[in-house]
Design brief:
Layout (H helix, E strand, L loop, with lengths): L16 H6 L11 E6 L14 H12 L3 E6 L6 H11 L4 E5 L5 H14 L4 E5 L1 H5 L1 H8 L4 E3 L6 H10 L10 E5 L2 E4 L30 E2 L6 E2 L2 E4 L2 E2 L17 E2 L2 H14 L4 E4 L8 H14 L2 E7 L5 H9 L2 E7 L5 H6 L6 H14 L3 E7 L6 H16 L3 E6 L7 H9 L5 H7 L11 H19 L9 H18 L2 E3 L4 H10 L1 H5 L3 E4 L3 H11 L5 H5 L4 E2 L1 H4 L7 E4 L8 H13 L5 E4 L12
Parallel strand pairs: 1-2, 1-3, 3-4, 4-5, 10-13, 13-14, 14-15, 15-16, 16-17, 18-19, 18-21, 19-20, 21-22
Antiparallel strand pairs: 5-6, 6-7, 8-9, 11-12
Length: 611
């Protein structure tokens, strides 16, 4: 045993005999191992809330329910997190380190397994989650120092895996494992999906400091209606649809929990934490009208606020009214496109007419609604893109909180397979390592695609600022803004705040001279976020920025005294939103030398003169 003992005296909530009957419990005559489950460092700032990885918390509870020696470590909000990981491994004589996550979290997961091996080369490392399930052998080759991977749902597999290690059994006999043998990686027989989700222990929130993820509110509307202490709860797993941009890491068959199980977990969470609102992680539960009626009645009894995700083809005025009356504060619809040809190509199974009807019903019953337009489908053309953009602008002006994004091609999705088949992705291992998931899979040539990406950034910023502009006018607007930016950079010292990778690309498109000017500085509270964003998105180059030797500064490093005259706000967040007000307040209280904040939307007209 290690120097410390994990507190496994209290079994995870909802540990039932039916679950214990189907997992491999420890053999008293076998080796006793110490396990450490590590949560990746998702939050890049100490003041930022993050979505606690629900799956990892469930796997932790499943392993603890078996009675094994299980330690947990959440790397979020920790000083020197990887040094802490080393100390935890050595200080507790850890034998097995487990972690996991999504493909976009590859660098975070690799840092964990590499650190574990550096702390103790003999420690066994095992990785699970969507990254492994999406492309198991590729993920293992990319990770390099991971010994094993868990494919699919992990609650049962992790216990059988542990049992095999403890009894020195052949891992080939464990279903749902990817491992290295005979000079290559191979995958054992896939494990059947868990049919009865009610028997699973509730998530190990205490083990991963759930209260820390509740520290900030979630903004759910352009009026900055913030919901504090939002807890997430999964109603079901997987989805019967196969949208081209989506990957079902929990299996192909949709399964749903019972109302009784869901309510028990809600009551348990409320009893332990100060919860202000629940976010329901399942857009399929509305299809069962009786289930929906009972769920809304239970939420009304509990007087709890909640957010819901639903498909537009499952919406009705009656259903949305039930949501509204039972405490629903916000609805998120699956929209994705405003062109029926693109929706068909995406395999969404919905129409623009259904989208419009659902949004209208939500407006009628007084439910704020949101959704995403994601550009870049296989069949996307300039014409279909403009159609979606014009629809988005009209809906946005009607106070619908519709986000405008580009499709990211993640491993496991249909788009990923097409990109591999077409030779767009030539090396799957390097693709995962690079995390550059925004690639052109459309019918547009690359030059036209990336030009559209930049124009959409400008269009989005201007439209969200209330400028009545047609997308086809964006090029002229960008030219006018560029002239004003060049003029300002000759007279004033300017800080671009907040700087994101998208903002840099947009400004380079508008005016490379402005970006490279010695009078222009780039600011972000956490500069590493910009690097992480570039890795995740990929995109076109930021050559001018990098060639100029620019760096991302923290605010207090550059906006001090009289060093900065103007702050340029070029972000695509709504100008009346929380972020803009925070920057405005910070400048007022800490940097009085700044003459004013200039919104990029103010620079469309003739020569701009700061007041």
């Amino acid at each position: 045993m290690g120097k410390n003992k994990p507190d496994n005296s209290v079994m995870p909530e909802n540990t039932v005999q039916e679950f214990l009957d189907i997992i491999k419990l420890p053999n008293p005559d076998a080796k006793w191992l110490n396990y450490l489950i590590v949560m990746p460092r998702i939050a890049t700032r100490n003041d930022r809330a993050y979505l606690l990885p629900y799956g990892l918390c469930l796997v932790s509870s499943a392993l603890k329910a078996s009675g094994r020696s299980v330690f947990t470590l959440n790397l979020n909000y920790k000083e020197n997190p990887y040094e802490l990981l080393k100390q935890t491994i050595t200080g507790n004589s850890i034998d097995v380190v487990l972690t996991g996550g999504l493909s976009g979290q590859y660098p975070l997961i690799k840092a964990i397994v590499d650190t574990a091996k550096a702390a103790n080369p003999s420690v066994v490392t095992c990785v699970g989650g969507g990254m492994i399930t999406a492309d198991p052998i590729v993920a293992m080759e990319a990770l390099e120092t991971a010994d094993y991977g868990i494919v699919g749902e992990g609650e049962i597999t992790v216990n059988e895996f542990a049992y095999a290690l403890e009894n020195e059994l052949d891992l080939e006999q464990v279903d749902g494992i990817v491992h290295f043998a005979d000079g290559r990686y191979s995958i054992t027989r896939l494990r059947p999906e868990i049919s009865d989700l009610d028997i699973l222990p509730f998530a190990d929130y205490d083990g991963f400091e759930f209260h820390m993820s509740l520290r900030s509110g979630v903004s759910v509307s352009r009026a900055s209606d913030n919901l504090e202490n939002v807890a997430f709860i999964a109603v079901g797993r997987s989805c019967p649809y196969n949208c081209t941009f989506c990957f079902h890491s929990s299996g192909k068959k949709y399964r749903k929990r019972t109302i009784e199980s869901i309510c028990r977990e809600i009551d348990w969470i409320v009893s332990k934490y100060k919860i202000g609102c629940f976010d329901i992680l399942d857009e399929m539960f509305v299809y069962d009208k009786d289930f929906t009626k009972e769920f809304t009645e239970q939420m009304k009894i509990r007087n709890l606020d909640y957010l819901a995700r639903i498909r537009v083809d499952s919406a009705s005025r009656e259903t949305l009214q039930m949501f509204k009356d039972s405490g629903c504060r916000f609805l998120c619809f699956g929209i994705e496109s405003a062109d029926n040809h693109i929706l068909k190509s995406m395999r969404k199974g919905i129409t623009v007419e259904q989208i419009d009807q659902a949004l209208d019903w939500a407006f009628e019953v007084g439910l704020p609604a949101s959704g995403n337009i994601i550009l870049g489908d296989l069949e996307e053309t300039p014409e279909t893109m403009v159609k979606s953009l014009n629809w988005w602008k009209k809906r946005y002006q009607k106070n619908c909180n519709i986000n405008l994004k580009w499709i990211l091609t993640f491993p496991g999705t249909h788009l990923y397979k097409v990109a591999c088949d077409r030779g767009i992705i030539t090396d799957r291992v390097e693709y995962l390592k690079d995390c550059a998931t925004q690639i052109n899979v459309t019918k547009m040539p690359d030059e036209q695609y990336w030009e559209a990406v930049n124009k959409v950034s400008v269009f989005r910023v201007l439209a969200t600022a209330g400028i009545d502009i047609d997308f086809n006018e964006t090029g002229d607007a960008a030219a006018a803004i560029g002239k004003n930016l060049d003029s300002l950079a000759k007279e004033y010292r300017i800080a671009v705040w907040p700087t994101t990778y998208v903002v840099i690309e947009m400004l380079e498109y508008i005016s490379p001279e402005f970006v490279s000017s010695s009078n222009v500085f780039f600011v972000n509270i956490n500069p590493s976020e910009v690097i992480a964003e570039k890795s995740r998105i990929g995109g076109s180059s930021t050559d001018n920025f990098e060639r100029s030797g620019k760096k991302i500064h923290k605010p207090d490093e550059i906006i001090v005294g009289d060093k900065i005259d103007l702050v340029l706000y070029a972000h695509d967040y709504v100008y009346s939103g929380k972020l803009y007000r925070q920057i405005e307040e910070t400048i007022k209280n800490r940097h009085p030398g700044v003459k004013r904040i200039v919104k990029i939307s103010e620079l469309i007209g003739n020569k701009y003169e700061p007041k």
